[in-house]
Amino acid sequence: MPTSLRAVLFDLDGTLIDTAPDFAFVIDVMRKRRDLPSIPYHNVRETVSDGARGLVKMAFALPEDHAEFEPLRQEMLSLYRQHLADNSRLFEGMEAVLQTIETSGLRWGVVTNKPLTYAEPLLHALALHERCGALICPDHVKERKPHPESLQLACAQLGCETGEAIFIGDHRRDIEAGKNANMPTVACAYGYVHAEDPCERWGADFIVQQVGDLLPLLHKLY
Question: Which residues are catalytic?
Answer without folding.
Answer: 11, 13
